[in-house]
Every structure is written in structure tokens, then in C-alpha cells.
Amino acid sequence: MTPQRRTAQKQAVFDALCALDHPSATEVFEYLQGREPAVSRGTVFRALAAFSESGKVKKLRLLGDEAHYDSNTSPHAHARCRLCGRVWDIENVPLPRSLPAGFCPEACEVEVSGVCDACGCGR
Ligand SMILES: [Zn+2]
Ligand SMILES: [Zn+2]
User: Which of 71, 80, 73 is nearest to 111 (CA)?
Assistant: First the structure.
């Protein structure tokens, strides 16, 4: 594969990541199947690993699921529907105030699990 081709494929992976909402690597791969069939599953996994290593995307470890990737790298929390798996961004989540003495917080990954409106939470 030429370097240009490789760059184009990485860009396609990034575009898919932005088009989808907090996708897993498998979801990115499935999305690309219909658009860029030349992009292999291995390319998707390698590109996502490189993006998260360089800080271009954030790798999320959500409850009981494979890793998801987020093109929004600013600090924010997530709400996740346990039925359909959809993920929403939650901004401005405060850090917990009951931290150990002398502890310097750098990041706080919060995940709120529940059932979304579409899945019939409806309260
Ligand atoms: Zn749902
Ligand atoms: Zn997010």
C-alpha cells in the first residue's frame, strides 16, 4: 500500500468516527464496508489505536462493552442506554469533592447507565 493510500484510509476511519456517535471499532468497520470496502478490519483497529495514542480521539471503556471511540477529546461524561447502547455526551460534570487528601485530579470518566426514551424509559 502506498503512503498516500494509507493516509486516505486513516482519514476515512476518522471521518467514520465523526459521522458515527461514539462508535466501537466494529461499528466503524461496518460503516466503512459500504463506503470504503478496501479498508480492512486491521486498518480500522490500527488507525483507531494510533488516533487514541496521539490524543486525536478518546478511547472510552464503557461498562461491559468493547472500547468505543470519541472524536470529542474535551473532558466530558457519558450517559449510555443499556438496551440500545446509544451514548450521549454530558458536559460540565463536576469532579467529586470527596477525593483523598492531597489528590490532584486530572481526569474523571463518568458513565451514567440507564434506559433511554426511545427504549421506553418514558418516565
Ligand atoms: Zn435506548
Ligand atoms: Zn463523548
Answer: 80
